[in-house]
Amino acid sequence: MTNQLLTEKDLLGTTLADLRRSVREYATAATESSCPMVRQMFTQLTDSTLKLQGDMYQLMASNNMYSGVSKAGRQEVSKRLQSAQQTMAQDQQFVQQQMAGSMGAQMSSMQNQMSGAPTL
Fold first, then answer.
1. b or e along 3-23 (b: 16 or more beta carbons within 10 Å of the residue's beta carbon)?
2. Measured on CA atoms in the order 13, 18, 23, 25, is the torsion positive or negative?
3. How crowded is residue 29: how many other Cβ atoms within 10 Å of its Cβ?
4. Whole-model pTM above 0.90?
5. What's the pLDDT score for residue 64?
6. Contact 42, 33 (CB under 8 A)
7. What is the DSSP track for 12-78?
């Protein structure tokens, strides 16, 4: 008889938790990177890790090793999706306004420099 420290369920559960943590870390790294190539790399790592996490969850669920959270109703999911879409639209509008303002200030500064007017 073998004396196993962790069961298969415990090992898979720990791995699943590590994958969830990795997804969060990769997503954070992607959002904080200023280099497009680094951002793309972390985005790809996030996507592949999400897929692996989903596959592991399915494996555990099909073997009755994972008791997931209760299912959300369609209305609740739709409500949260709509809220997230509204927030995203507001964020996009804010970024566009800020970029337009920044571009306008740069153009004004360039025009002042070209006309010989002092810049502030």
1. eeeeeeeeebbeebeebeebb
2. positive
3. 16
4. no
5. 86
6. yes
7. HHHHHHHHHHHHHHHHHHHHH--SHHHHHHHHHHHHHHHHHHHHHHHHHHHTT----PPPPPHHHHH
For the CA atoms of the chain, what is the radius of gyration? Answer: 24
User: What digits encode the pLDDT tens for the residues 59-117?
Assistant: 988 988 877 666 778 888 889 889 999 999 999 888 888 888 877 777 777 776 766 65
Which amino acid is located at 5 in the chain? L
Q: What is the pLDDT of residues 7-54, one digit of tens each?
A: 888 889 899 999 999 999 999 999 999 999 999 999 999 999 999 999
43 φ, ψ to 5°? Answer: -65, -45
The rounded distance, in Å, linking the Cα atoms of 1 and 5 is 13
